[in-house]
Specification:
It is found in: Membrane. This is Sortilin 1a. Pfam families: Sortilin-Vps10, Sortilin_C. InterPro entries: Sortilin_C (IPR031777), Sortilin_N (IPR031778), VPS10 (IPR006581), VPS10-sortilin (IPR050310), WD40/YVTN_repeat-like_dom_sf (IPR015943). By secondary structure, the protein is mainly beta. Among the domains are: about 255-390, Neuraminidase (6 Propeller); about 400-445 and about 460-500, no CATH class; about 615-660, Ribbon (Complement Module, domain 1); about 670-740, Wheat Germ Agglutinin (Isolectin 2), domain 1 (2-Layer Sandwich), CATH 3.30.60. Helix content is about 5%, strand content about 35%. The protein is built from eight helices and 55 strands. It starts with 20 loop residues before the first strand and ends with a helix. The protein binds 2-acetamido-2-deoxy-beta-D-glucopyranose (5 copies). One 2-acetamido-2-deoxy-beta-D-glucopyranose binds near residues 273 and 274.
């Protein structure tokens, strides 16, 4: 098995989102997905309690080093202890005051609230509240719908449009991903004992009611390629399709378990005719490309599957019993290949962290309940994997890992590892998993006290992400980065030789994670506006708030604006997805009424940016005089970025401008090949001892291939030219072998195995002896583009009962779904 240490495993994935939702496959799948919708898009810091998932198992070794999360530590901190305050632009206060709008909802506030933007730049925002009263065996429910056309400044009660029909709160509002203004609500009508769709094609101005011939199990899924086509799974596992935006429906399959839109109008489903969806490993994976006229079975004995980037990834049962192995297809399921997998026991799991057009990042759980595992990266076919990072934290039960894709700079990912001596450390890679390193200490911050080890303190920055939120630490927002705010990352963190459980501060990087500085003291909710030209933050506290902080220089200094004289219990900060807006809404409540305060910052940035406001900035620059400076994955990028001292408006049409230049190849453009590894601090790939002198063979598309390598394999997507060009050949051995286990009658090996290590055989042996517990993790697909917020009932109770002390409960409450909102939903990942 050590021979596989250079190899990988696989897992489904999606990514780009920090928060992945573990799907309980099978029967639970459908219900989980609706929950995840809520979770992923709604409660950023939502934790196990909120999602209905079991609480994360925290291995003792990790817990040991986490000091008790804040008990009675006062949350209130005076602002400006460390953070720099700026002189506000002249007239800012009065300017903002005349552009601040407040709207109070007349409804009582005990119900969850859903929010959805409709279209892009339309300013239309729909808000849904539902409440339900259990009465004997029945439930009586009612919903209210509100609509704003001005980015949340004013709302109209339009509940009559849906006749106050009760809308499942888990379903929420489904707004079409193509921004064409389509909206769907799924109502429950007790008279007809069924479901009624309310469909709008005019940005929620009018709704057409349509009674459904079935009861949906979760929200309707839009075909990302054509939003007139909808898919829905019924509570009786029938699959229904509509090609006319929900007016008429036809049943296209029964016994469906998991359902996904794929690229080019394709639909992938798992089914089980003879059993239940609970019989994992007994499912058939089927695909249709003609909207259900015909289905083709593309895999059997399927445990689960996932679509991500160009990859279709499935876990398949082997021979008999409980063992399974990952198969990968890059052509939508026509040809499958088994991926290399290290041996794992039943309690272990795989999790795809990311899958894009180039490669797959996967986490393989270590044996035992260690809470850590190893990250592997794949080749461009998803078959051969290299070890990327060990001891990555990922709990078995809760699906919590800090793995984060930094969206503001290519090739950058962060995660947290548990070191041998039990501390948690943030690691970052700038070259797509080639090498990882710790973060530098922030320029302007001291070590936080609270670390109790005796070793010399190394002042490194440690970022708090999903894992911290599941520990109920006081982290109201996850790390935040956006493609159009180049190089910018906002994150909560602490400084020391390991992650500290003290109340974290907000740190900002403006160069994609190379350097960091302390931006705000104490936890905050934050938001990016105008493609990074404006940053906003609201302090996270249990007391009512009346202040918002804003920065026009990427977080270097902050101004304070008192947006109201009558503080409110803050819920969430919300702006239109896409980060181009200048309007921001602060949701909260006061006197048991929900309230939204919308501030238009447009008049603050009084002038449009011109050419002179931008400077050239080389990404990944670490050695300004070096020839290879800025080279990552074979090329360098120079961006035009806003000057820090420019206070101006990028505008809605702002597009990131960049120039590319090719680089010559070096060892750093290569992953170590199968059977090779890198020593610490070295670029050179050396052969694993046990592999020396043995030819490597593996099975590709049913034919044995011999790999002749000098140890290097170009990183998928790397565009370097010339320079270091190690030899690597795959020689076809003209021998048939088993490259996948999908077809029982696969021909067996025709030549006798020689001394060579035949990778596939190794794998098969592994499979015989071990069981791969595969959990497919994926970013959630709600079938639409929406942004959801939920106001915690608990919070309102707290206010009502005048309970001063709010414990963990509040961190999981209201959060801006924004950080969770992600334009690359997995649907978008499929091209
Ligand atoms: C609205 O609901 C009421 C009571 O549920 C019902 O009597 C009425 O017919 C409904 N109106 C429409 C237009 O559906
Ligand atoms: C279902 O079961 C029947 C008999 O038990 C069997 O003939 C049939 O092949 C099974 N179908 C599938 C899809 O497994
Ligand atoms: C803003 O509000 C704070 C209290 O939250 C108060 O101390 C401060 O004086 C106010 N500033 C202005 C300019 O009103
Ligand atoms: C802010 O909202 C107003 C409407 O109240 C709208 O006209 C304006 O375009 C919005 N600004 C931005 C940048 O979205
Ligand atoms: C690798 O480099 C770091 C920092 O330069 C150093 O602390 C460490 O000891 C090095 N490791 C080895 C094995 O040389």
């Amino acid at each position: 098995m050590h021979s596989l240490s250079g190899g990988g495993h696989v897992e489904p994935s999606f990514s780009s989102l920090g928060l992945v939702v573990k799907l309980k496959l099978g029967i639970f799948f459908a219900s989980m997905i609706s929950v995840s919708c809520f979770l992923a898009l709604g409660l950023l810091s939502s934790t196990a309690t909120g999602s209905g998932l079991p609480p994360a198992g925290i291995p003792g070794s990790i817990q040991r080093n986490l000091v008790e999360p804040r008990r009675s530590e006062p949350l209130k901190r005076s602002t400006g202890v460390n953070e720099q305050t700026c002189t506000a632009p002249p007239g800012a206060e009065s300017n903002l005051r005349s552009n601040t709008h407040s709207f109070t909802f007349t409804l009582g506030s005990v119900s969850p609230l859903w929010l959805s933007w409709v279209g892009e730049g339309s300013g239309v925002l729909l808000v849904l509240t539902t409440f339900q009263v259990p009465l004997f065996m029945m439930r009586f429910g009612q919903s209210n719908l509100y609509r704003s056309e001005d980015y949340g400044k004013t709302f109209k009660d339009v509940s009559h449009l849906i006749n106050h029909t009760f809308v499942h709160s888990e379903f929420g509002i489904a707004s079409s991903p193509d921004n064409s203004g389509k909206v769907i609500l799924v109502g429950e009508v007790s008279e007809i004992g069924g479901a009624r769709l309310f469909r709008s094609q005019d940005f929620g101005l009018t709704f057409v009611p349509t009674d459904l011939p079935f009861e949906p199990l979760f929200q309707i899924q839009y075909n990302p390629g054509d939003c007139n086509t909808l898919l829905s799974l019924s509570i009786t596992s029938d699959l229904w399709l509509s090609e006319d935006f929900g007016a008429t429906w036809r049943k296209i399959h029964d016994s469906a378990c998991m359902v996904r839109w794929g690229p080019k109008n394709s639909i992938y489903i798992t089914t089980n005719y003879n059993g239940s969806c609970n019989d994992k490993g007994m499912l058939a994976l089927r695909k249709t490309t003609d909207y259900g006229q015909t289905f083709k079975t593309i895999a059997t004995r399927v445990y689960s599957f996932i679509l991500g980037g160009k990859f279709l990834i499935a876990s398949i049962m082997t021979g008999k019993g409980t063992q399974r192995v990952i198969h990968v297809s890059v052509d939508g399921g026509e040809v499958w290949n088994m991926a290399q997998l290290p041996i794992i026991d039943p309690e272990q799991f795989y999790s795809v962290l990311e899958a894009d057009q180039d490669l797959i990042f996967i986490h393989v759980d270590d044996p035992g309940d260690s809470g850590v595992g190893t990250i592997y990266v794949s080749d461009d076919r998803g078959i051969v994997f290299s070890k990327s990072l060990e001891r990555n934290i990922y709990t078995t039960t809760g699906g919590d890992t800090d793995f984060t894709t930094v969206k503001s700079l290519r090739g950058v990912y962060m995660t947290t590892v548990l070191t041998e001596d039990g501390t948690m450390e943030t690691m970052i890679t700038f070259d797509q998993g080639g090498r990882w390193q710790t973060l530098h200490g922030p320029k302007n911050s001291h070590c936080d006290s609270g670390t109790s080890t005796n070793r010399p303190i190394t002042c490194r920055l440690h970022i708090h992400a999903s894992y911290s939120t599941t520990l109920k630490m006081n982290v109201p927002s996850l790390p935040y980065s956006q493609p159009n705010a180049v190089g910018l990352i906002l994150a909560h963190g602490s400084v020391g030789d390991g992650e500290s459980a003290l109340s974290p501060n907000v740190y900002v990087s403006d160069d994609g994670g190379y350097s960091w500085f302390l931006a705000l003291t104490g936890p905050h909710h934050y938001e990016i506006l105008d493609s990074g030209a404006l940053l906003l933050a609201v302090e996270h506290t249990n007391s009512p708030v009346n202040q918002i902080k804003f920065s026009t220089n990427e977080g270097q200094c902050w101004n304070i604006y008192n947006f109201t004289n009558d503080p409110l219990y803050f819920g969430a900060i919300v702006s239109e997805p896409g980060f181009r807006s200048m309007n921001v809404s602060l949701w909260g409540y006061r006197n048991r009424k929900k309230i939204v305060i919308t501030i238009d910052f447009r008049m603050l940035l009084t002038r449009d940016c011109t050419e002179k406001d931008y400077v050239q900035w080389m990404a990944h620059s670490t050695d300004p005089n070096g020839l290879q400076d800025g080279c990552v994955l074979g090329y360098k990028e120079t961006f035009l970025r806003l000057r820090k001292d420019s206070v101006c408006w990028n505008g809605r049409d702002y597009a990131v401008a960049k120039k590319l230049a090719p680089c010559t190849c070096t060892m750093d453009d290569y992953h170590c090949d199968f059977g090779y590894y890198r020593r610490e601090n070295s670029s050179e790939c050396v052969e694993q001892e046990e592999m020396i002198g043995r030819p490597l063979e593996f099975c590709l598309n049913g034919t044995a291939e011999q790999l002749q390598t000098s140890g290097y394999r170009k990183i998928p997507g790397d565009q370097c030219e010339g320079g270091f060009q190690p030899t690597r050949k795959e020689i076809e051995l003209k021998r048939i072998c088993t490259s996948n286990l999908l077809h029982q009658n696969s021909p067996s090996e025709t030549s006798s195995p020689n001394a060579a290590i035949i990778v596939m055989i190794v794998i098969v042996i592994l499979l015989m002896s071990g069981v791969a517990g595969v959990w497919l993790v994926k970013k959630y697909v709600c079938g639409g583009r929406f942004l959801v917020h939920r106001y915690s009932v608990m919070r309102e109770h707290i206010e009502a009962n005048k309970i001063e002390e709010v414990d963990d409960v509040d961190t999981q409450n209201v959060e801006t779904g924004k950080a969770q909102y992600n334009e690359d939903s997995d649907q978008d990942l499929l091209e």
